[in-house]
Amino acid sequence: MARIYKKETKKGIRWGFRVYMGTDPVTGKDIRKSKEGFLTQKDAKLAAALFERQINDGEYIQPSKMVFADLCNDWERYYSQDAKESSLRARHIALKHIINEYGQTPIQKINKKAYQDVIDKLATQFSTNYISSIHTSANMVFEYAHSLNLIKEIPTKGIKLPKKKKTVSDLENDNSINEKFLEKEELEEFLTVAKNEGLEGDLLAFTILAYTGLRIGEMVALKWSDIDFDHYTLRVIKTYYNPTNNKLKYTLLTPKTEGSIRTITIDPLLVDLLQLHKQEQDKVKEENRPFYKDNDFILATNEGYPKTIKHLSIRMQRILKKTSIQKQVTPHSFRHTHTSLLIEANVHIKEIQERLGHSDINTTMDIYAHMTKNIKKEASNKFSNLMKDLSKNLIN
């Protein structure tokens, strides 16, 4: 029960209340909350009753001066217990944009309007996807604060993420769908140039990407123990992580998702290339035995370290310049290329999902929507054949 009292101040009589909140588990002393400055006894009683109800309903939030930057540091320590190093780094980078705005602001003073203003401001600087990443990271931090009763409401809930409206000109110039993968003829040209003018390991690396649909990090992490030459299979149980591109400072992590752990069948051509590469690599090991660090990597440098993703990206651009291909593709484009070719070969969507290592079928469906020109032409041809008789009647 709250105790109501009155107090004489320089501004006259003021009223206040004091409420018992329980016992401190550490010191064993009673915890009491006081508030004063009310003009009337009735105001003090109403405020006390509201306060007691909040305590009884578990809605009371203890005032805190914790600032957003400190909350982020606490959350990152908590998040790092289960998250991969790459995920933690991505969240850390995304949160920097919110910290730049509210780093030293007490978290209890950050409301929905203030947060929406920041998101709207950042949306003018970054892509829609990156804004979504920033928002998701911030939401995780505020949900963490709410779970600890540091804030009463989560300011990130119900926020509208801005979407950039495309103009007619943008749509006319949008080649993003076609730029995401190589057509079959373009892939043939690329791999032919890689064979004739590529450097050591180029043909194998880009054939693996194109013929398996592996993520480049999964490919770089491949070891000879992951290849079953008898059954023509390849297993994916790890991925390569190296944000600094220092060949010595890499980390092998578990794959992106549970669904990414998989064993796939590989083409006889790829098996032949792997066997030839192994023979060449054995010679390199023998020649460089004094300083070769053999960790069983397939795509290894002359010292035995796995090749970096940046190294392979540079090699890819070198080959592209020697082709007639005008697309701005990346190593990840081979994953889309592999998908489009599977679709063209009428492989079932579920099989594609398992081969690519997608945990969510919707992810596969999104990629499935990016059909190749050949598939679109085939659909047009089938329609023309279907409507052949009707078309003749319309002309004659």
UniProtKB/TrEMBL annotation:
Q: What is this protein called?
A: Site-specific integrase
- Domain named Tyr recombinase is located at 177-381
Q: Biological process GO annotation list?
A: DNA integration; DNA recombination
Which SUPFAM superfamilies does UniProt cross-reference here? DNA breaking-rejoining enzymes
Q: InterPro entries, from UniProt? A: AP2-like_int_N, CB, DNA_brk_join_enz, Integrase-like_cat_sf, Integrase_catalytic, Integrase_recombinase_N, Integrase_SAM-like_N, Tyrosine_recombinase_XerCD
| One annotated GO molecular function | DNA binding
**Any Pfam family:** Arm-DNA-bind_4
Which family does the similarity line name?
Belongs to the 'phage' integrase family.
- What are the Core-binding (CB) domain coordinates in residue numbering? 66-146
PANTHER family in the cross-refs: PHAGE INTEGRASE-RELATED (PTHR30349), PROPHAGE INTEGRASE INTD-RELATED (PTHR30349:SF64)
UniProtKB keywords: DNA integration, DNA recombination, DNA-binding
